[in-house]
Design goal:
Blueprint (H helix, E strand, L loop, with lengths): L2 E5 L2 E3 L5 E8 L7 E7 L6 E7 L4 E3 L7 E5 L5 E6 L8 E8 L9 E2 L3 E5 L2
Parallel strand pairs: 2-11
Antiparallel strand pairs: 1-3, 3-8, 4-5, 4-9, 5-6, 7-8, 9-10, 9-11
Length: about 120
């Protein structure tokens, strides 16, 4: 079976940067859209950013100008460059891969990587 494997999370001070990576393996995963969701303690899961194979990008309002999503030419790897991190960015970040019109809940999810912004 296919899987998504995330890496790059960790502890960072406010104003710092992290780069998350996600690799999709296996032919069973639909990677038409790849993206990142996050879930902070006590909050619902929310979209951070997504990118299609055609490199159409969607960002949540709260990350515009700070985060950059990109994907590799062979289209099975996606990155999230996170700059100017704030306390509120503390969350578990999940990589998601799905079809163009497929709800995210029905896509493929990684196991999550923890990001902690703390001084």
């Amino acid at each position: 079976q296919g899987q998504l494997v995330e890496s790059g999370g960790g502890l960072v001070q406010p104003g710092g940067s992290l780069r998350l990576s996600c690799v999709a393996s296996g032919t069973e995963i639909n990677t038409n859209v790849m993206g990142w969701y996050r879930q902070a303690p006590g909050k619902e899961r929310e979209l951070v950013a997504s990118i299609t194979r055609g490199h159409k990008i969607v960002y949540a309002d709260f990350v515009k100008g700070r985060f950059t999503i990109s994907r590799e030419g062979v289209e099975n790897t996606v990155w999230l460059q996170m700059n100017s991190l704030q306390f509120e960015d503390t969350a578990v970040y999940y990589c998601v891969a799905k079809g163009l019109r497929q709800p995210a809940n029905f896509g493929s999810w990684g196991q999550g990587t923890q990001v902690i912004v703390s001084s």
